[in-house]
Amino acid sequence: MAHTALSSTLLTGAAGQQQIETDVLVIGGGPAGAWAAIAAAARGASVTLVDKGFCGTSGATAPSGTGLWHVARDKEAREHAKASRFTMGGELAEHAWMDRVLEQTWINTETLTEWGYPFPVDTSGGLQRTSLQGPEYMRLMRKKVKEAGARILDHSPALELLTDEGGRVAGATGVTRTTGETWVVRAGSVVIATGGCAFLSRALGCNVLTGDGYLMAAEAGAELSGMEFSNAYGLGPSFSSVTKSLFYNWATFYDRDGVPIEGAGSSRGRGIIAKTLQTQPVFACLDKADAEIRAWMRNAQPNFFVSFDRQGIDPFSDHFPVALRLEGTVRGTGGLHVVSDDCATSVPGLYAAGDAATRELICGAFTGGGSHNAAWALSSGFWAGAGAAEHSRSVRGLARRVLRRAGTAGIQDGGGTAWDPEAVVRAVQAEVFPYERNWTRRADLLDDSLQRLDALWANLRQAAAPSAEQAVRAREAVAMLATSRWMYRSAQQRTETRGMARRQDHAGLDIAQRHRLVSGGLDEVWVRRQNVHNAAPANELERIAA
Ligand SMILES: Cc1cc2nc3c(=O)[nH]c(=O)nc-3n(C[C@H](O)[C@H](O)[C@H](O)COP(=O)(O)OP(=O)(O)OC[C@H]3O[C@@H](n4cnc5c(N)ncnc54)[C@H](O)[C@@H]3O)c2cc1C
Q: Looking at the predicted structure, is the pLDDT value of residue 538 above 70?
């Protein structure tokens, strides 16, 4: 494949100012990365965790309250939980994975309780463990990562992976922003836990989430899956980055004349909001919340109200403008394809966890936001860390390996002229933000966007390497570009409407397309089908068709 030929840059000793050797390198310090680090250390591995921001405050979980898919160890309750999104997810979830995640989430939540996470007590005296407050949760996770003995490099984005002669992933390089120093971590295995891709849409916690892990992994030969399920849009005030949308269940949506918009709503009616926003502004008012609910809201998510209070807007009586911000794969479900229970990718030595990995296995084509994603982050992180620790043992005995840098566009010098990463960011956003292109897709518009995105990629492959100051932004821009191409190529192939993959030109569900779309490649993007492992019985298929 194209990337093999590109990965020809040998790593020299001088390639990084800070040199580290470790068994397991975890890239990304959100919940998935933190659980991975803890699980790897528990298996005796030495662990290094690098984060683009500050592990504990960076990423999508840290600033928000997070609903968690925590279900009692009761057969009926778990069956009910599994069924809750199965149909909405286009029946692409797999029972075995849902069972595993429910159980691991239960176990890890017990661990959080033992560690002293302050779960609230309900009226019957039991602990309420169906949500986690991001700041408390991630503060605790950082503490536990450190206690486990892992080394943390904050403000140290990874830029590219390293591979050995056998194509195994063997570390990464990056830069520490606070000092400007470059770093090289040689590792027995690597966990990608870099979150999803929200295309720098300014959604809270998401501006570090630019798909870097997808890019780095694909450059080493990894595959992605479900990239057509990548068009989650968060609902929020147009003047604020807060896209927590639970409270909009108590909202009425109005047009510019103050007339309620029929059918508009936070969940099922979000499509009407997207459609209306194409021609006129949409306003919301949380006028269905009574006094008790209002008090609960202020208590449950204080940061929801900050921007309203600052602007002197009363969201319970004033009409305020709303927007839908693209959250891409953060609350979508696409991501790196995992091939075994330990969340290994198809590339030896490379593991994926959290939003960086596909969540189709537990939520299919429907968003994993609200509960499943948080459960997946802590379960997949746990498994990936353990798997990576095992793998690192298997390469420990190898002689010092000759490593190559796997990075391509935006890091290798293509010999051409300099380019502006901000211009590339804007160019990608122009293709992926518009509701008419991405909320609902259409073959001619997908072709139209892909023509420009492919041309942009070809140009970047020929362009000069960016300056050291621009290196991080350049790789973010390239990662967003690569993500948009996997996303739209996969969307082209799904000629039906399933879950969040909505096609204007193929409005219905096609029972013949109950498969995954696995994608990959950089210069040439490819997409192939893969079967889902728990095919529904025939009568089930008839039911869907009806
Ligand atoms: C507003 C909002 C509300 C949500 N609410 C819920 C909910 O209620 N329930 C639910 O289940 N899910 C919810 N989600 C989704 C949930 O937040 C994510 O699924 C979860 O954060 C995923 O954890 P993660 O560790 O994979 O990624 P993140 O928490 O996003 O962490 C990724 C980390 O990787 C780091 N990183 C990125 N690139 C690099 C790089 N190149 N090098 C080094 N580090 C890097 C980032 O700095 C970040 O710290 C919500 C998402 C949003 C945006």
A: no
Q: Does residue 520 line the site of ligand 1, with CB under 6 A?
A: no
Backbone dihedral region for residue 236 (phi beyond 0: left; psi -120 to 50: alpha; all else: beta): beta
Residue 396: what pLDDT? 86
Spatial separation of the C-alpha atoms in residues 431 and 199, rounded to whole Å? 11
Residue 159 alpha carbon, nearest atom of ligand 1: 41
At 537, the pLDDT band (50, 70, 90 cuts) reads very low
pLDDT tens string 475-488: 999 999 999 999 99
pLDDT at 535: 54
DSSP structure class, residue 304? H
Residue 195 beta carbon below 6 angstroms from any ligand 1 atom: yes
Q: Which residues in 509-521 are b (16+ Cβ under 10 Å) and which e?
A: beeebbebbbbbb
DSSP 535: P
Measured from the CB, is residue 355 less than 6 Å from ligand 1?
Answer: yes
CA of 172 to the centre of ligand 1 (A): 21
One DSSP character per residue, 309-369 reads HHHT--TTTS-EEEEEEEEETTSS--EE---STT-B-SSTTEEE-GGGB--HHHHTTS--T
- Please, are residues 189 and 350 in contact by the beta-carbon 8 Å criterion? yes
Q: Is the CB of 327 under 6 A from ligand 1?
A: yes
pLDDT per position as a tens digit, 276-292 = 999 999 999 999 999 99
Query: Going by DSSP bridges, is the β-strand pair 18-27/181-192 parallel, antiparallel, or unpaired?
Result: parallel
Cα 312 to Cα 463: distance, rounded to the nearest angstrom: 48
| pLDDT at residue 543, rounded to an integer | 47
CA distances from 503 to 170, 323, 459, 515 (A): 40, 21, 30, 17
Asked if residues 209 and 341 have their Cβ atoms less than 8 Å apart, the reply is no
How far apart (Å, rounded) are the C-alpha atoms in residues 222 and 191?
Answer: 12
> Cα angle vertex 371, ends 91, 493, to 5°?
35
- Please determine, for residue 315, whether its predicted confidence score (pLDDT) is greater than 50: yes
